[in-house]
Amino acid sequence: MNLIRELLHYLNLENEVEDFEKIQQSIEKDLIFKGTNLWILIFAIIIASVGLNMNSTAVIIGAMLISPLMGPINGIGYSLATYNFPLFKTAIKNYGFAVIAGLAASTGYFALSPVSTAHSELLARTSPTIYDVLIAMFGGLAGMVAISSRQKGNVIPGVAIATALMPPLCTAGYGLATAQLQFFFGAFYLFTINTVFIALAAVLISQVLKFPITTLVDEGRKKHVNRWISFVIAITIIPSIYFGYMLVQREQFTENVARFTRNVSVFEGSYLLRSESNPSTREIRMVYGGSTLTKTHKERLTEVAIDFNLEKASLVISQGFSLDASERTELDQLKMEINRLGIELENSQKQKDSLIKQPETGEALLKELNALNPDILSCSFSGTIRYSIDGKPDTGIRQVILSTRRGTLKTGEKDRINAWLQQRLGTEKIRVFYEEIP
To answer: Whole domain around residue 62: which residue ranges?
Structure first.
């Protein structure tokens, strides 16, 4: 119980809430779009449009940081939570003015810009999903908590970046300027999602922190307002759930296609040269090279696709190049000859390496043998072949010549050195010769 009480103490916001009058003054101040705020809005819109046009993430982030669009949205949420309808009307009016100004400025820019290509930063704002709802919701919660707190910190700039109000508005302007209505509706829907759920977050925080209601309002009107809020949330969130579901389906399809193509990269003597997939049409195009794929082979590929949850996919299989039986025979012979030459080259290289390493081996043997017996003064080491009249040559023989002081090595000592050399060189094919130096 004490743990829960302590946890609730850490989560408590009421001790840090700013004076309610100061909060309202701050919100009312950010509602105004004239003079400084209006010019900042216009500049931010142009900067964001240039960033989208040039596909520059850094420029877009800069535009989001200086954008004043959060002000009227927080004002809408705060005024609904406190049933301050005059403030709500002012917030809606200023918000509408900001949206129209943003659309006009971005449409004008893209209409004049010689670059009309839709880059990735722009395309990313045309397909909103339920995940954008979550971003707007939690970003709005963070922003309203910061506005209501004495310890504001640097939350507001982060919220501006996370919720990204400016880029979708500019993308909608791009759609109007280029007469691509799918871009306009997709981007404006994302902008609407951000607006609605940032405002909803402001409503929730205002009610949680129990902001005072300064106007007289009957219960019937409160219920009417709450019904409208619920209706707007519903019509905003339902399409995003569908789009989110479609996004998950596309990602799953892409992953299944990747696993399937890896599994059939080599099939019946043919090699997968290229594959492409379209999640929207669920079509998979595959180009093979090598053995000719028959109709039966293609049917088997379709059956394999079912094992990877691609039963509803359409497989389009084409032949890049094929080899008939005679061509394959010649190709196999060529491969065998290449392998043979490769083995000969490898053996030749090994023989060359062994010749190069012989002096190093002899020097190493001398150092080690001299440590064992200081009477060994020199060592010669080489690989040789012993030829016989009655049999085939005996290869792999190691020949070692040791120079010692006369009369210093006895037979037992020589046997010990011979055994050590066999162990050291890893072979019993060793011929050891001793020469005595006076």
So the answer is: 13-217
